[in-house]
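Working notes for the structural subgroup meeting. M.R. asked for a predicted model of this chain before we commit to crystallization trials. I am recording the input and output together here so anyone reviewing the notebook later can reproduce the run.

Input as submitted:
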Amino acid sequence: MQEMKVGPTSGAEYLLRRQQGQKMKLKEKFVEIYDMFLTGQDPAQGKDPEAFWDELFLIKVNEEYLASSLRQLSEDQLLAIKDGINSIFLHAVQTMRDPMPQRRLHAMQTLTVVLGEIFRKKFHNWSFDVIHLLTGLSHADLVFRTLLQELCTILDSEESLQMQVVALRLAVALACGNDNVNKNSLNEYFMQKDIFPSLIKFFVKVESIELAFEAMSLLGLLANYNKYETQNRYLASLAALNDDTILQKMAMVITHTCDKMRKSYTEVMDDDEQSTVSKLTSAFSYVTGMLWNPKSQDISVTDEAFARLPDGRVTVLLVFYDLIYTNKRFLRIFLNYSTSSSSAVTQDNTTGQQTSLEVSGTGLGAFLSFSSYLLQHNRTHRSSPYTHLCLIILLILVEDTSSYPHLCSIPQSQDPAFATAANAAVTTFGANAPTSTGMIRLCRQRQPVLPKFKGPVPMAAALLDVILGFLKHNMKKKMQVDCFRIAVAIIFNMAARFKALRVRLPYHWVEMWNTLQGLVKFLQANAKVFQNHPEARDLVAETIDLVNYFVTFGDMIMPDPASLYALYYEIVRSGIDPFSDLAKEFTISVQPPLPAPLPHHDLTSRNRLNLASSPISSPPESVIGSTTPRISLSPGLPSTIPLSPEPILPIGFTLQQQLPPSATLYTFFFSHLLAWRDANPTRSLGPDLVSTIIKDHYQDLTLVPNTLDSFLSMRQNGTTGLGGVRGGGSYGNGAGGLSTHSPAGSSPVNGLGPHPAWDGYTEVPGKVYFFRQLTRWIVSDFRSISRHNASSVTLTNISKTVS
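Returned structure, recorded in token form:
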């Protein structure tokens, strides 16, 4: 056979001595032997086979050379030297039983490199060719079962940490063979041989956060192997895990991993505004632009750096999701987890040195902090699935009643599940709130930024900031509509829970109103772009449902009248044209047709600053003299307000002749503004004056809260659709299984929806597209971070870490 050129372009890198005069060049023994294997020769020929393999696995493995040499071989070249690869793989597996630790260590290192490089190849028939190349079809079952059995033995035993780390990396290489975890047929051997107890034992023993992270992430990956087709033993084990010590450590790993991932964002751009010097420097550099610091102002460099984030540690979100979705005991422990101090000293396993890491005060705080950065920097195809998963995790958190003592500082003895309107006291907050945002660092790297909190506020306020940050910075024509639906559902769930618990949340609610109004106007302006999106109509209806809910029950949620007045002002300022236009664009009808409010184009303006300069015109005579249906108001005002017979949107309310809350509110305050204009013809209405009129007449406004609750409940029970014309939909291309609405007269898929009456988030086995796409990124990122950790930490450093 003609000798193949393998290895790096510069073979001298692997020479112990270059040729000098009569002295022959001297190759490293490992390189010389594997050169023969990879060129189709048999280095064991003419030697005692047992002695040859014993000697080979005593030689230190040159991982860089072996990986480089295998990488340069094509798929056909590898298949041509199948016998040599078979021999290496089979003898390495057998050597894992050798009594000498050095041989076992080198055998596993060789297996890790060989598996990793062969799995990179694009074989025509991946599973068949890989097994044929590694073991041959006749020996596959025996060899791989032996391999997993030996991995379990090493992880279970009192072997050195060096040995166990290499065993863990070998298991990772085997599980991450194919980007599609479900198409990696080798993972079937993990289902036959349960390594869950062994991984948990290693997880408990190891002190390094990075190594514990790898063990957790491997469990999460295995728990998602064919979980929709068969019962997955790893997922069942995670759900049944009830050891508080183990769950506590898992919460710690997630907390520290989230802090490290958040730190990677702040290393690109420091958004800490605590320092006055930092503020002045930032402002001056912004004004002077490129002249001040060209490198720091290079936007393209900064964007490129953000595009590479989050790093591979983001794979921890998958096992985090599985734990909080299936294991309520873990959720309780995670919500109660807190670090000992705001600045913790941790062990850096890459250097063996102690490093100071800024950590969040609580596990929930760390996750919210990282989420704010991830959701605002959602710019790439890679970050999109992680953004989606992060939102699902937040949705699960806000759906669970046990979260609210931590989100809202409710005393633990007061179970939210039993806090009814009859026995729940009004919850108020002050500077001594036990769970506050004081230790949470939220992203402020993208404009416009949300206002910073002045003093401690409940954790729920930080969570709302995370969601508003996502909504503000992801409105684009190619936006993830399914993620926006989840975000709206999160806000709706929190609002409904606040109402049930009589929680008045201190929050900058005006930012909420501005964001929701901005979302409605964005959808209106890009209606033609989203018309063909299967979930756009659902997003439109759910957004307006949310606005109406706040209009109706805002006085039971907001801490002061000013927050509610701000909402009313925004509705009066913007009018309901955006809602009506959306109704027409998305063919959302109302039966029977409801009348439209009075004309408002002269009263309000799309720009808040122009409000005062817009004179108020009289309503048309045809409107004043109409005999259309009327809405009853409070005794202190005229008994009826004339309305035009044209239909309007607000959300498919089919409740006799009642106007939806937002339309009722708009019509009510508009009539008082018209009355003021008639009484003061020479004066102009400005924002302050409009706000004053709203405050003066707020007490006279009458809404119908029971009707709204009843309607939302009917929607969830499938007894009504949106005007009888809405179809079904689900979050995440059907992946998350958040099916919300059903056609009129039919039963909902899961009885779910972003309203108080839904049952909660659930996965739908028939719709798993999102999670299958997600696991592709998980495998790729987990494989990368594991290789990075393996290359950056030596066995010597691991030994130092332990000692």
